[in-house]
# Entry
Amino acid sequence: MKSIKTSILLFSLFAAVLLSSCIDPVDLGNQVNEKPQLVLYCRLCPQLDSTYIMLSHTQLLYGAGSHQEITMLRDGVVELSADGVHWIQATYYEPKDVFLLTRQEFPVEEGHTYHIRASRAGYDDVSAVCTVPYSRPVDAHFDTLMVDHDTHYGEILNEPHADIYVQWRDFPGEENYYALVSHNKYTWYYDDPTTGEELLSSDWNYNIYGLEENDRSIQYFSDKDRDGQIMRFRKGLIFYWDDDDEEVQEQYYMMFLDKNCYQYEVTLSEEGGFFNGFLLEPMHTYSNIEHGFGLFGAFTLQEIP
# Structure
């Protein structure tokens, strides 16, 4: 019992030292009374038929109204521009609770720089700039290998299986950021509320695929220290081959991200972006919105055969 008490005391002292090293004085009165700011979120993509934009506001963790649900600011003004001079106002689209511009209204092209701005009474105006990356020829493809035994996340698999790899060659001479995107059709059954009849429904969704590197799953990749090199990562494994002739309704794409999107995603997905007890301080999610928060970024999609 004495050793347990001693351990608890030592842990408490250790925690106190850690906390004292990462806590700074905070003016709570100033934090609680801080003025809310606009939050603007938009990603451009030449391959998609529309551009969606979300406009909301910040909300303090503590203070008046801190437990209210954050909603889209439907009466805000959101505009996009291809030159920073001529602007096109987006229309609020109620079914998705976003602002919308179709490809016909605002075409997006690879390599072009675009501007965004938003305003709403009671808030400071916000703005941002981003450049759409090029969809480079990187020869992205899948490679399947039959394996008797290998290691997955530190465990040896002795049962014969197939390892699937995705491979591409980084486009040299520039900073590049990548992700593997799966476009899957989800199918489900549901009961018709009027007749009770069981019906079949389906929908297509885009998902960022996690790839294995050094026994960990990574979703977003940089070519830092790998300029022009082959990039090869394990996509997954299959224990049993499917002999069914049923068509698999899925398609994969190589996603080329601009640096804004990459930095935003990394702060969300990597362990440094989360509060980890006594060991890590909380980190801010990356934002490139002037006088506010959020993301204005771009990406392109290239189908993988």
In short: The mean pLDDT is 80. The longest strand covers residues 177-191. The longest helix spans residues 2-22.
